[in-house]
Amino acid sequence: MAKKPKKQQQSGGTPATVALAAAGVTYTVHAYEHDPAHPSYGEEAAEAMGVSPERVFKTLVADVDGALTVAVVPVAGQLDLKALAAAVGGKRAAMADPALAERTTGYVRGGISPLGQRKRLPTVLDASASGHDTVCVSAGRRGLEVELSPADLAKLTDAVLAPIGRG
Length: 167
Fold this sequence. Notes:
With about 170 residues, this protein is α+β, with helices and mostly antiparallel strands.
C-alpha cells in the first residue's frame, strides 16, 4: 500500500505563510537580515522594510485569568494589559512566560506570528489596525514579515478588534 505524501511547506515557508496560502488571501512576504543585537524585533522590522511603525504589529502572548491569549499591537506602542483582559471578558492579564508562549505557539520569541500557531489561541487585534489598508506581522521567524489587510488578519485568527495598544 502506498504512503500518502506529506504536505510540504513551500521553500522557506513557515506555518504562517502556509496558512495564508491555504486561505487564498492576498499577502506579501518581506524578508530582511535580522540583527541579533537590535534592541527591538518590531522596530527592526519597520526600519528594515521602510514601513511606519504604526503599520507593523507585534504579536505578544499574555495570560488572562489563567488562559493564554494573543495580543497584536503596533510596535510603536505598548500593550495595555488591563484593556486586553477587558477585551476578552477577563479580570487580570500579565505577560505569559516566554518559554510557554514558544511551546504553545510553535514559534520563537521575536518570530511569533498570530497566524499558523501550533495551538489556536484567543486573539485580540488592536483597533488601530483597521485604520490601515495593510499591516505587517511576523511571518513566523525573525527577519520575515507578512503584509496583509487587517480584515484578513482578523478573519484568519478569529480576532476581536479592541483598543488594546497605548502610546
